[in-house]
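Usage example:
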Amino acid sequence: MPMFDRRTISAFALIGATVLALLTGFAWAAGWLGPRRISGGDITTALEANSGGVKPGYRRAHAKGLCFTGDFAANGRGSALSTARTLHAGTLPVLGRFSLAGGNPLAGDGRNVFHSMALLLKTPDGQEWRMALDHTPIFPVADVASFITLQRATTPDPKTGKPDPAVLKALLAAHPEVKAFQGYMAKAVLPNSFANATYYSINAFRFTDAGGTTRFVRWQFVPEAPLAGLDKQHLDQLPRDALFQEMIARTAKGPSRWHLLLVEANPGDVTDKATVAWQGPHRTIDAGTLTIRATQPEETGSCRDFNFDPTILPEGIALSDDPLLAARAKGYSSSFTRRAAEGPHPSAVGEDLAKGAQQ
Amino acid sequence: MTRLSPDFNPALRVLHWLMAALVLAMLFIGVFMVSTSGPAYGTLLALHRPIGIAILVLVVLRLPLRLATGAPALPEDLAPLQKRIAWGSHVLLYAALFALPLIGWGMLSAGGYPVRLGDGIVLPPILPHDLALYALLRAVHTAIALAFFALILLHLAAALMHGLVRRDGVLRSMTIGHHRSSPPSAADDDKSGETATLPT
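Running the assembly step on the lines above writes:
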């Protein structure tokens, strides 16, 4: 090759600049350059620390659970709000999972924490509606940064076994919504069965009807069984798996039912903050009946290997502008990917069954 | 097969540049959506799956066309090793175009996720629901994507070397072609407007 002339040198410079520009753009897109972003892994890591370290193979939140199966019989009235095929009149099989909040899969049931129900509804065309519902209508924080702050502030100090009171105090001062949530939890009835709790969607979603009208909707599953509470003063006396064993025994005797109530937002209702409850009367549609007919430990049930990501939605239902939704999707996804790589581990209920079999 | 014409088939050229735009967009969307738990995540995820499947459909059309119409011969003065590297890198580029969407689809299948493309279209699973398989494919999807981006940068740098330094008609064979000008070796192949622009 001849000596490099000026044109060749500028050509090399142009090539170098082009490649460098693409590399820089890619590094920015990946979050390696520029302001630090909160990834799904950051959420999961905060949850792991809050639980006293990684519990390999388990969900990083709501680690303790029980699978169930049943069906959802839609009456068709939900179609007034959404074209989702799940709401068309007819019956669909359902699988799901009851769980308690926290990252410890063997924690006791006597804790004043979220009682949760996850559901997966699938129509024959393959569309899915996944839900992760809690027994409270509201959530303690409104966004992902606050969620991580909350996890860190409530992480037990290894020395004392309790969260640092000074950090907690600062958190409550900066986040009145967390304080409001704690006040709610202190007063609210803590259901004494998975079967008699109302489970809420937490976030608002966009429902679009056949005419193309979009409305904000929250929903709840209201039980037919009357609500009764646990004695909050003596929670520590509850056997480790009392709530799960109660649900297994109850379901062996007969099914439990809930009504799906779709609640349409009134003008002015907050639809992008899960910390704010909707007050007063709302247009509410009873869209159908959920019946839970059988329970299975995670070892043999089919719920364990699903991620109940509440952003997996059918046509006719879409995300709202609530920033917590993306954070839930990313946190769940990161937890799912980590535990998938670690392989499954025994559940508390499965452990009970194994002990029972030995006796 | 070596093509007698100095240029790639016009349909292949259109497919090449369309897919170049889609693939670059996908790589940027992919790494961005993995990095954030902000509101952009939902939008990016909703783009990632249909664009991925679109790339799979396009490469399924493109490979037979490429095999049927062939490629123009590389310049005779190119070293045999360079020619072999050029051939190998193109095989790898085609392999990545097939592998990434298929692994993405397979990974979601193994994770028990619906492969939703929007408009009520959900693809059937192509692999059994198996979390160990999901974890493996999830890692492989990222690894191949990063390797693919590196390969695309090399491909781009090599193409610009042909176009701007060697000026041997190789870049032109994939852009405007030689039909309006003299033989390939004499072509003034200094077109630089093809470089991708950065997203803002």
